[in-house]
Amino acid sequence: MRRTGWLLLAVAAWCARAEERRGADGRGALPLSIGGGRRRALTVRARNGQALPVLTGLPASSHESWRGDGGCVVLSADVGADGTPGEDGGFVWLGALACSRLLALSRIKRWWMGPSFGACAADVPRETQFLLLELSPSGPYVLLMPLIDGPVRATLSGAPALGAPAAGAPAAGAPAAGAPAAGAPAASRLSRNRLGLELHCDADAPAPRARTALLACAGTDPHEVIERGVAAAAVALGGRFATRAAKQPPDAIDFFGWCSWDAYYEGVAPAGVVAAVRALRAVGAPARWVILDDGWQRVEPPLETAAVQGGGGQAAEQAAPAEPVSPPPAGARIAAALANPVGALVGQALRGIERLYRAHVEHAPASARSLRLWAAAVQLPAARAALRAQLDATSTFTRKLSDARANSKFDDDGGDGAQRADGADGRAGGREAGTLADGTTDGVADGAPRAPSGLGRLVTELKSELGVRRVYAWHALGGYWAGLSSNASSSALARLCAPVHQAQPAPSAALREIEPPVQWDGLAVAGVGVVLPAEEGESADGVDPRICALFSALHSYLAACGVDGVKVDVQAAIGTLQLRPPLLAARAGGDGGGDGGDGGGAVATVEPPLAHDGGAATVTVTATVTDADADAEDAARVGRPLPPPSGRAIGGTRLARLYVAACEASVARHFAQPGAPPASARADGDGADATADARTRARAIGIIHCMCHGSETLLSYQAGCVLRAADDFYPREPLAQTAHIASVGYNSLLLGELGVPDWDMFHTAAPSGALHAAARAVSGGPVYVSDAPGRHDADVLSALVTRRGRVLRARAAGRPTPDCLFADVQSDGASALKLWAPNARGGCVLGLFNVQGARWDRQARRNALTRSAGVSVVSGVSPLDVPPLLRAAERALGARAIADARPSVPDASAADGAAVDSGAADGGAVAAGVVARARAGCGGSGCELCEPGEFACAVYAHRARTLRVSRLSARAVAERLAAPTTPGGSVPPPPPAAAGGARAAARIARPPQRTVAFAGFRPAGARGASAGSTRACAQCDLVLEPGGWEVVALSPVLALQHARRGGARRRPAGRGARAGDAAAGAPSPPPPPPPFVEFAPIGLTRLLNAGGAVLAASLHRPHEPEARAAVAAAASSTRALMPARPRRVRGLGRLWPLAMPRARTRAVAIVRARGTGDFLSLCTVRPRSVALVLLPDERERDEGGADAQPDERLPRETTGPARADRAARVARWTYDGEAGALVVHLPDDGPADADDEPRWLIVVSV
Question: What pLDDT, in 10s, does the model give residues 1155-1168?
Fold first, then answer.
């Protein structure tokens, strides 16, 4: 028996450990397993023990190759064993997909991703790089993430995407744009629910197989599943990339910025940059960082002589007449340039071809006959030469970088856009080729140049006169759009990195289907000039020395000019290149990659002819590179001879990783942010040096990754933390505005785990300026505009930027809430896009957007209208929609109660409900009496009192200017479960509000989760009126017009029960009261104060992300040490918290301790905030006094993430009067008892040109 007892105990312990492993970190991880038998399946084990299938019919070659601690698994794939080979790899059928809804993030262009929604595998587009599944209406959730294995990259696709081409396809052997892989079975013979895995192999891939092909991760919380899955992918790939938790963001993203692109395009010049920054400073929104976008580099052909890309952007539009004159067509410009009798005929022909292209090719489906004929015609030499001439005259995509220095607009003559008088274009007369005017070699600047260049003078002016803290410069990952120039006679970089290989892009069949113009755009007809990797491979720190020489030349020059970082664009172009062995062997022969030894001579190598060069060979002269780099580390790298180039085949996946690693290593040396906390080192599984890896990631680096949404680049970032989230902001395309908001929101689900998503610049004066500003306030990323001088909206800027140029950025990326995670918010006609982001101390910001009516059309490759255009939607607002607040409610009430109370099955035909407080009105600054009284949205039924087992959250709507409290109690949940339900599954809506309350109820159909009867809003001051109520309020709904928006601040309520001594005091008989007073109708005494004190800081009301101003908050009893310390700090120079008259204490005379609050004080609220203006807080009891303490100007270190706990540092910030100095004062404050709104005015103390906002300690005595 004793042995049996021990055995039972061991089994129980093992089961407990297994359950603990199953729960992973306690946030809902579920284990995945692969079942055997005749039909192998990937299943997830739910909490109730049920095995739910995810993929049924797995091939035999797909087995578990890696398993993580949180239950994540990685599957392998082998095309040769179970798949169908294709022209660039092949595909493997994974089996039947089982889910109720899905969200796919797939590429919509070569550069960008976009969201897709559906319910089966047929809705999964090609090039899907992220697939989130909802197995049942209430979960669990499964993440499927294709990975990379060396030269093999995996993506997901549904069955129709891999089917046979449409009718009219060319015969076998004639590949067409978008044609499926060879041998793919017909779509008619496939189930619509079969999911396929495509393997894209590089030129050096030994076989189409991958050991780490697909990661699967499951759990009950979709956001936690994504976070855990991406972290597991980083470990499974051996540290190929780093997650957001291992990176440090640059300090620039916490401030307001300006970018030159949409203001000037390539016409940017120093005078325009200064004028734009000065104009922003004049309207009260100083730009603290600047991006000098495309247009400053030296390229071939020169940008100064070409009419390209819009002709000057917003600034040119402002200077144009009221009736702008349309520019002549591209064909007319080319005809005029020909200057011969044939020019007129050629121009007419080109104009006709252009009209034909726009009518029948530009937006034709990938399987259309006209598109396939065009793709075949442009391969002819004559057509390719004409296309090259047109693109040279109208586009920047055929231009190549020739020098690391700035062009003539930024030259040493002052940057007025003119060439130098001596025609030397920046070079000193008489110097040998390859030597620059500042005495350095081949574009590599000295660490201490003798005189700054024109670009250097611009940077100095921006920083010294206009208060700019950081300046970023743009360049492409390959140097410029079409890479590097190979013309040794005019290109210093060609001599530095010789030989420069002009590679032809070889996009995969999937990319040709998604974006057919990749076959005839500027990169295709001009080639991409790339630096060949070194023969011996990567150096000791994992960086290719030949590629690193290119970035060292660029970045050392920029660093010498005072530039602080770079925006690296056109990254996905490198992933489309395939360098084949025959051409590489010819180019790598002899000493073509070296510098001729250490004798300082030059070596000539003959480059083989290229098709677009007319077949003529060119001679490349390679100059010796001396030790002229910015620091000793670069001097050691550049001072020695560069190793010869490799003759091995290399494809885009490995080449993109080599470029990204070299670029980030160079940025880490030249643009590291000082003072960043060190990061923990992690060994790289691919053999890279762990010490070098730790040095790179131990500090923030000034880099913004852009046009990079291919997995070959996304899964290569080790240190770069800022990533562009979606396609550009297009100011001239009305349909692109709401589509942009939807794309950046859903793409941030993946990109938010890799870094800080950048939602791009925008125009404040555009019709959609307020919509974009609201989205940027929720983004959690950098906020910057591209306004031209004089084209500003001061109201939009004042809602985003503080007076000293700081942006109240959320602590993590804005992401969709779980209730709209799988909803097609762009075309279903009923759903609103709800984006949430966490702030400090547990608060969140929630943005609601009506983005119905426009989406990206994958067939026509443009934004198009949908059937839901012009539709208003009703969006519910509940704290339970936000994961952190949902977890807080689960801790208060229990996870089972919350799960039972939340609706599970969405149904667009559910019951109607009442719409209250549409929030369409714009409000001004909140002052005394201006805070709108919360209406009786609950129909007079009231809410539950604060009691054990209750969760409460303060909710403030920015546009509606309403302050409410949302409550959820255990009793309300029980009553909701016991209440009768409608056939749609929702609780009947409460009666409409009484007269004088909210607006008349509107009957609007909406899903049942909009009418949940347990999360309600009510006036904060009507606390005691519902003591006997047995019903909970209905959820608050907002009506959003087309393109409408609302930003809501959510702040958990801090509650403190006040224990009264001896119950309520009674007046003695005969003193102030007579018998019969009650019968005579005498007024009754006022009711006793409520037994609870509730407090919740909201933030600065004039800013969209009001809660970003709150750094810490806590509520204490008067005798607690934190309260004593805060009162002592405030009492150092004011008696705001002291009683009006000192009380005589027996034995102590008239003494009164300074650190003791007055006797009747029930609670002390302590808030640490920053900024100036009206600071709003929920306070259910009228404060007795409020005091402010100006804290020392120290760098906040609460930017470390959403999980930081500033409350724990609060006592250290306020330990005694020594920290308060002379800055304590009696605050100017107002209190609205009906709304429960406490508004404290934070004065604008300190110099106007201070670097940061003042930080305050707000002490509220209640």
Answer: 444 457 788 999 99
